[in-house]
Every structure is written in structure tokens, then in C-alpha cells.
């Protein structure tokens, strides 16, 4: 048994036929976790007491071990955002995805590591220590969903859920050689997901194959009246008219000529896209003139929203509380002790770009550019069916290699546009570099056209495997 080479559908069939039981899968998951977690550190906490008395026919995910990023709420379980601020916090309600997984009969193995409050690209900023890439333990697994990606890549569980605000599902999936899907904004409910940057955050699956990603997505993709950014099915349909069977792939050439993209990444991208051409796809150049500003725009909007969302950790309502001489001193001490450096940096950046005298210059300008980028991307889908780029400008780097925040931010170059525009996007393994580290192919589809994304991604997966 190996979760890495057995699809969810195959696991389901084995469970239904009685060839294996949920108990067998649970034991297997525990033994791989025991074996690899001491060095990989994908799990912050392994839960026990799972009920393995599940009818496999309950759902396609019934009885199959999985795990979640440490920022998704399961009532009665600890959840910390990998922060000291919420070290012993226990969730008081279920996330919508938790309800849906329970309905499916999923076996929740535990909560996995991440960059603190999902800010980061390497899972080196967790209060619970770094996560290591299971393919090479001297390297990072990517981030911020480094724990969920590493858990899948090490075969500890069959799939995981992560969150993606600027690439946090797709980039670690690329670094660990697995599949990562960021659904359309408004498809999967954000209820019970830690709010980081509310206009960008999305929950999505990390899996071993596109087919698995589709299966998990279908299980968690449901309108939620308790999330006011959840989009009604009848509204989604209006967008889906772009869900044609076309085979035209758009490549934003000028975007690929920006500085800092590793030549090996570009070479891999060209040869991978060529494979799609061999399959009958047409590759065309597209012009997205504003997309080169996406990273700058993201690093204004993300900290702006994060700084207001994180104001709730004030040492009074919940979480860490460090007493001070007066109210302000208490805030200061709590936040200084509870938040790590990167989170503090983002709060300061966000407060700055929102402060009076500066919000016109930064925040409003970034919002205007975001609208322009969105318009350009949506228009591009009049000519093409999918947009392709590499997932990240580099493959998994060494632990500690990127110390300055800017070089880490640059890793988000290709992933942030889909968060700014809301479009669904996926990373699929696309071969390996000379160190044996995986490349990722990144596809973006029209809004709510995940089906199209899956269809083209499956073709790509087949092309790469052959
Ligand atoms: N790396 C990006 C950041 O640090 C994305 C994070 C995310 O998607 N949660 O903000």
C-alpha cells in the first residue's frame, strides 16, 4: 500500500470490496507518519480516537486518511495557524469544509504545519519549527502549505487541504512534486478558515493526481449561505459559458521574460508546453500588459487586509494574553510575544499602506491595478481556453537559503495573479531539475471553470508521464 501511487478512486474501490478496511488505512497512515514525521515535521499534531467504523459507501472519501492545514477549524480540535498567539486555542465551531468532510466520512489524521498565519513561501516561519521537503530533507517544501504538501509527498495521508492566498497551495505542491488546486474565489466556503487576506483566501486540495484533486474539489465545492463571498450556483453558471472544449493555450510571453526566473524553469516550461502541442493543443502568445505588476499589487493588498484581520489578536478576546501596565502596553506585549517576525512585518506594511496620507498612493492604486489585471485576464479568455506559466520561478531551495523577505516574495510571481483575479488555477508536476527537485506547470482557467482545468490538466499529466 502506498498512498502516493494509489488513487482515491482505487482506495475507495478497495474499501468497498473489503480488500482493505478504514482501520488498515489508518494504521498505514500512522506508521508512515511515525517513520517520516520526526524529520519531515509535516504534522503539528496527529489526532487519535478516529472512528474507523465507517461505511465505505458513505462517500468517495469515506474511510480514507487525510489531513488539514493548521488554519481550518474542526470543532473541539486545537488550531493555531502555526502561531504562538493561538498555541492552545480550541476551535469552537466547524468550518464548512469540516462539515462536508464529515458528511463524506473522511478520516482526519491531524493538523499540518504551515508558515505562521499562512504568510510565507517556505514553511520556515512556523512556531512549530520548519517542515522539510520529503524528497530532499535539506530543502524547503515550499509554503505556506508546506506541511500539507509534504504530508502528501511523503505518503503519510492520501490527500490534504491547504489554503491559498497568493500561491500557498500551488507553490508547495510544485516544490514537493504533487498536485495543488486553488479553486475559484467564491466556490469553496471560507467559513472556518483563518482570515488572512479575505479577498484572496481560498481553501483547496493537495493530492497525488489531477483526478484526485477533482474528486476532493467536488466534495468541498458547495454554496454556503453563511459565507457572504460564496457564489450562488446560478451565478456560477453564467461564467461557465467559457467552459468550451477548446484546446488553445495562451502563454504570456512578456511575463516570462521578467528577471529572476531560473533558466532551467524556463527550459522545462518550453519542453512541457511542446508536449501539449504534440497532443493537438494550439499554443498562442497573449498580451497581459499589467500582469508584471501583480506581485507589487499583491504585496500591498495582502498586508493591508492581513493587518486589519489580525487586529483581533489583541490579548483580550482569545489567544495569548500578556498583561501590560495599561491597555496599550498589553497590546504591545501580546503582539510582540505572540507574533513572529514575518507576521509583524506584514502588519506594519499593511498599517502603513492603509494609513491616512498613504492609502491613495498605495492601497487605492493597488486596487485600481488589481481591477485592470482582472479585466485583462478575463478578456484573454475570449481568445484562449487556458493560460500557462511555470508555477514558481525556482524549484525547492535549501533551508535557510532565502533569508531576506524580498527574495521569498519573488517566489510568488506566477501564483499571485490568480488570487487577485479570483480565477481557478492548478499546479501539476512537470519533470525534475538536475537536483531531482520537481518543476510545476501552472494552468489558470476562466472563473468557475474548474472542469476545464481538470480536463486539460489530465491531458498534461498523461503527456508528462509518457
Ligand atoms: N507566499 C505568499 C505570501 O507569503 C502566499 C501566501 C499564501 O498563499 N497564504 O503571502
Brief overview:
With 466 residues, the protein is α/β, with parallel strands linked by helices. 39% of the residues lie in helices and 13% in strands.
Give the full name of the CATH homologous superfamily.
Amidase signature (AS) domain
Report the count of strand segments: 11
Which small molecules are bound? Answer: glutamine
Tell me the Rg in angstroms. Answer: 21 Å
Distance between the termini: 24 Å
Which sequence of strands runs across the widest sheet? 1-3-2-4-6-5-10-11-9-7-8
Give helix % range. 25-40%
Helix-strand string: HHEEHEHEHEEHHEHHEHHHHEHHEEH
Characterize the biggest β-sheet.
11 strands, mixed
Amino acid at each position: 500500500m502506498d498512498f502516493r501511487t494509489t488513487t482515491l478512486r482505487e482506495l475507495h474501490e478497495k474499501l468497498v470490496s473489503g480488500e482493505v478496511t478504514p482501520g488498515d488505512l489508518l494504521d498505514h497512515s500512522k506508521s508512515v507518519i511515525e517513520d517520516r514525521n520526526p524529520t519531515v515535521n509535516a504534522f503539528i499534531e496527529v489526532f487519535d480516537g478516529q472512528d474507523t467504523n465507517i461505511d465505505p459507501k458513505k462517500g468517495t472519501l469515506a474511510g480514507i486518511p487525510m489531513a488539514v492545514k493548521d488554519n481550518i477549524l474542526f470543532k473541539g480540535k486545537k488550531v493555531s495557524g502555526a502561531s504562538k498567539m493561538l498555541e492552545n486555542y480550541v476551535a469552537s465551531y466547524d468550518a464548512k469544509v469540516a462539515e462536508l468532510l464529515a458528511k463524506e466520512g473522511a478520516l482526519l489524521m491531524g493538523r499540518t504545519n504551515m508558515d505562521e498565519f499562512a504568510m510565507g513561501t517556505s514553511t520556515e516561519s512556523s512556531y512549530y519549527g520548519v517542515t522539510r521537503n520529503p524528497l530532499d530533507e535539506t530543502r524547503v517544501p515550499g509554503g505556506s502549505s508546506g506541511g500539507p504538501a509534504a504530508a502528501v509527498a511523503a505518503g503519510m495521508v492520501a490527500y490534504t487541504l491547504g489554503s491559498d492566498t497568493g500561491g500557498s497551495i500551488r507553490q508547495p505542491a510544485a516544490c514537493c512534486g504533487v498536485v495543488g488546486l486553488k479553486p475559484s474565489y467564491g466556490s469553496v466556503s471560507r467559513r472556518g478558515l483563518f482570515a488572512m487576506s479575505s479577498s484572496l483566501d481560498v481553501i483547496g486540495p493537495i493530492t497525488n493526481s489531477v483526478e484526485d484533486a477533482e474528486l476532493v474539489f467536488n466534495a468541498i465545492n458547495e454554496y454556503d449561505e453563511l459565507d457572504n463571498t460564496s457564489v450562488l450556483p446560478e451565478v456560477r453558471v453564467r461564467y461557465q459559458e467559457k467552459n468550451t472544449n477548446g484546446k488553445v493555450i495562451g502563454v504570456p510571453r512578456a511575463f516570462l521574460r521578467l528577471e529572476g526566473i531560473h533558466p532551467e524553469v524556463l527550459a522545462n516550461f518550453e519542453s512541457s508546453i511542446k508536449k501539449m502541442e504534440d497532443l493537438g493543443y494550439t499554443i498562442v502568445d497573449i498580451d497581459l500588459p499589467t500582469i508584471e505588476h501583480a506581485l507589487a499589487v499583491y504585496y500591498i493588498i495582502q498586508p493591508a487586509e492581513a493587518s486589519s484581520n489580525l487586529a483581533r489578536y489583541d490579548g483580550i478576546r482569545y489567544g495569548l494574553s500578556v498583561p501590560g501596565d495599561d491597555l496599550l502596553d498589553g497590546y504591545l506585549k501580546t503582539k510582540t510575544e505572540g507574533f513572529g517576525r514575518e507576521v509583524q512585518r506584514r502588519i506594519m506594511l499593511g498599517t502603513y499602506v492603509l494609513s491616512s496620507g498613504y492609502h491613495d498612493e498605495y492601497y487605492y492604486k493597488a486596487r485600481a491595478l488589481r481591477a485592470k489585471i482582472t479585466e485583462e485576464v478575463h478578456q484573454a479568455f475570449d481568445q484562449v481556453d487556458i493560460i500557462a506559466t511555470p508555477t514558481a520561478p525556482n524549484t525547492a531551495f535549501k533551508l535557510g537559503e532565502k533569508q531576506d523577505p524580498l527574495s521569498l516574495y519573488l517566489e510568488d510571481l506566477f501564483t499571485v495573479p490568480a488570487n487577485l483575479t479570483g480565477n481557478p488555477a492548478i499546479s501539476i508536476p512537470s519533470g525534475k531539475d538536475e537536483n531531482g527537485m520537481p518543476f510545476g506547470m501552472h494552468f489558470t482557467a476562466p472563473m468557475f471553470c474548474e472542469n476545464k482545468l481538470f480536463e486539460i490538466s489530465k491531458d498534461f499529466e498523461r503527456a508528462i508521464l509518457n
